[in-house]
Amino acid sequence: MGTIAAIARFVWAAPNTALGAVVILVGIWRVPVRVVDGVLEAHGPTLAWLLTNLLPMSGGVAAVTLGHVVLARDAELLETTRAHERVHVRQCEIWGPLFVPAYLAASVIAALRGEHFYFDNAFEVEAYRAAKVARRASFAPAGPN
């Protein structure tokens, strides 16, 4: 059942993953790509430009997740945003092709409430919370051997 469930999650998120793969192909000649924990990660100058200039955040974003693809400005940002972006991967597995519309709707809802469209987006709140917990866990002392 575990393998079937994993395949189902990949298939359900596939439309978003395909979109991420297309973005990688735009700059493939200059985009280092690797698979980490079943997620395709890419970075490079073309992606850095896209993430800096084409998203509605002042100064752009460090990374973005589309299905099982994470795009970042550089390798260091892939590392530092990994826990946060993995939450978005799980969200894509749950929401499937509805993730992008649901994410955009969450931004609109936050803005209509007078909140920040990004930082108060329910998907981002969950991802930032999980990343904070993961950061704390990485600094926790090891238990007795």
What is the N-to-C succession of helices and strands?
Answer: HEEHEEHHHH
Distance between the termini: 34 Å
Count of strand segments: 4
What composes the largest sheet? Answer: 4 strands, mixed
Helix run count: 6
Structural class: alpha+beta
Low-confidence stretches: none
Overall description:
The chain is of the alpha+beta class and 145 residues long. The protein has six helices and four strands, in the order H-E-E-H-E-E-H-H-H-H. Helices cover 59% and strands 12% of the residues. Helix 1 packs across helix 4 and helix 4 crosses helix 6 (122-139). The longest helix is centred in the N-terminal third of the chain and has 25 residues, at 2-26. The radius of gyration is 16 Å and the shape is globular.
What attributes characterize this protein structure?
145 residues
Task: Present the secondary structure layout.
Blueprint lengths: L1 H25 L6 E4 L2 E5 L1 H9 L9 E4 L2 E4 L2 H6 L1 H14 L3 H14 L9 H18 L6
Parallel strand pairs: 2-4
Antiparallel strand pairs: 1-2, 3-4
Helix pairs in contact: 1-4, 4-6
Brief sketch in words of this structure:
Helices cover 59% and strands 12% of the residues. It has six helices and four strands. It is globular, with a radius of gyration of 16 Å.
